[in-house]
What we know:
Chain A is of the alpha+beta class.
Amino acid sequence: MDWDLFLTPYKQAVDELKIKLRGYREQYERVSEHSPIEFVTGRVKPIPSILDKARRKNIPLNQLQTQMQDLAGIRVTCQFVEDIKTVIELIRNRSDITVVEERDYIADKKESGYRSYHLVVNYPVHTISGEQMTLVEIQVRTMAMNFWATIEHSLNYKYEGRIPKEIKDRLQRAAEAAFHLDGEMSQIRGEIQEAHRHFMEKKID
Amino acid sequence: MDWDLFLTPYKQAVDELKIKLRGYREQYERVSEHSPIEFVTGRVKPIPSILDKARRKNIPLNQLQTQMQDLAGIRVTCQFVEDIKTVIELIRNRSDITVVEERDYIADKKESGYRSYHLVVNYPVHTISGEQMTLVEIQVRTMAMNFWATIEHSLNYKYEGRIPKEIKDRLQRAAEAAFHLDGEMSQIRGEIQEAHRHFMEKKID
Amino acid sequence: MDWDLFLTPYKQAVDELKIKLRGYREQYERVSEHSPIEFVTGRVKPIPSILDKARRKNIPLNQLQTQMQDLAGIRVTCQFVEDIKTVIELIRNRSDITVVEERDYIADKKESGYRSYHLVVNYPVHTISGEQMTLVEIQVRTMAMNFWATIEHSLNYKYEGRIPKEIKDRLQRAAEAAFHLDGEMSQIRGEIQEAHRHFMEKKID
Amino acid sequence: MDWDLFLTPYKQAVDELKIKLRGYREQYERVSEHSPIEFVTGRVKPIPSILDKARRKNIPLNQLQTQMQDLAGIRVTCQFVEDIKTVIELIRNRSDITVVEERDYIADKKESGYRSYHLVVNYPVHTISGEQMTLVEIQVRTMAMNFWATIEHSLNYKYEGRIPKEIKDRLQRAAEAAFHLDGEMSQIRGEIQEAHRHFMEKKID
């Protein structure tokens, strides 16, 4: 299997979607409004992870294109929980992206404490050998959710999915602290948004 | 007129098209083939230039969106004259870009000595206030054509379109030297392409 | 006063220091160690802010170069409170940077709740008119500290330094939630670092 | 040999020098003067090329740091032959770079037709394990010289240094065409520089 060739359209999809979603941020700033998007990052899944996941989920390598939804991944980080909804609407309204699945792990958080909103989308790219459809997973989260998720991800690798009870409890407390910070932030949000508008108009740092 | 707001979709169009066209280059390199694209640059027309051109061409400011074709500009630079054709085909074959006009100043160079291939295209962008169509001018040239054009452009500004005869003659000789270099390059091209393929496969710099 | 000319060396200082500090992050990742640096951002102080501050602090415009310490600003964001110390040591050990002042608002947080470590440094840049010394302020913070500081900054502008009691109380609660999250993170830190090492070695995402 | 670790300071040197030299270009534009620097690119020598060169030149791998001068390479491209001198002066005047060798293949071009000015410099970088001196080769060329050199480089790989007579003759003619273009450009240069100044002041594209 020529991985370089196979992954080329996914790399292109990630590059294009980063530019497209980052564009919103700049546009909000230009009209002095709070941007629901703080950061946009993206990656193509590393080959060992693809092989690992294909084995676990019993996906034949010749069906990766239709069966593995996160070969291309985009992550959008927001300041406030309320921003997540706005980002989802921006994505749903685009004619160049087709949403094929949504998973709301915020309303319905995972047992581990994981919170995030996932969209799986179809996105067409043009390569030197023509147009090709790609599946891309877009994760939308607050900074606190993101922080926690990064840590849980690392611990899961360390313990190969079997995190000891003591560590699990600590992780749970960190999840609660992150959740609490998001709550405090939401309360102060109205104030901040108005302040932000004021601030951008003055164009003073 | 709120220029910042008006030019936002053009800035976005330029950013997206740069990523899309640069993607080709990387793809050619990955399959060890000569890339017809050497550089891709882009710019939104500066406001004083817009005002100046609107005055000269009698375009009312509320008709800029449909009447001024180069508010957003993309420039693709190629190594060989032969590459220009390939680039044009790549653009014509995209479903996200609609070519509305083509001007071939290579087969039919301007009196001044100017050579380049121009495409005017329709390109849709999604902003925070919805989808919008933009006109973008894409110029395709060799490096030698580009070098010459940059200089002629500067001299035209200096002399406000009335370049003295002596300078004009020198400019003409430089145009011929650039044209001659392109010719020598074309002749050596077959060799180079094969060599390039060889070179990339070895992955030795 | 030619601001463009005056601010040129500060822009150059910011660009160079971003590259230099971001380099560390990549190096830690390459040896599979936890990086004490998560993000590095930078900015040159906008002209209206310079004028505003000069007025408030009674700094004559011809003494800006020696009297205003944050014309060039660098911000380093860390995952853990413990990382801040490591970053400070990396900076102190460089022969191309001279630390001229340090302010520890973490051990000794401001009344408002503000926490951060500030270093003021001398940094030489080479411009087209020769070498010039610049003063640069480097702020080192955790992500939670940074989040809180951004909000307080905006609110201060809105209320011109006179934030109403109710808002102040909310801001205080958010500062406590951020502080609490930093604490939970520190506790889980040893685990995470080891996990991170494990994770990078496997090179699985 | 841990190549990743060994090449880390060279990668950092390339990144820093690119920012430092590109800074000049921006500064010239800001004061509306012709920039002697058109492009700055850089690369760390790929591992197969290092091994190949070490074999050819009999350099033991543990002496690469002091014996191989182009592990880190920077290329500065200029519009005019006259600009090369200015770039060399800018580099010689920096206190953070020490020139250890200069080779003038412009006054004294290689038999093949190759023209370029080479500087070998010492440049200190700070890594997570402390300060380290690196050798960097800086090549300064016009665009026409660069174009020709790229092609000759590829052909050399194809024919493993033994380019057939016919191709060699063609290459020679292309070198002459490039040289001729540089000559025409020099003649028109005074005009262009003044025009450029005029053009930047008007801030019209």
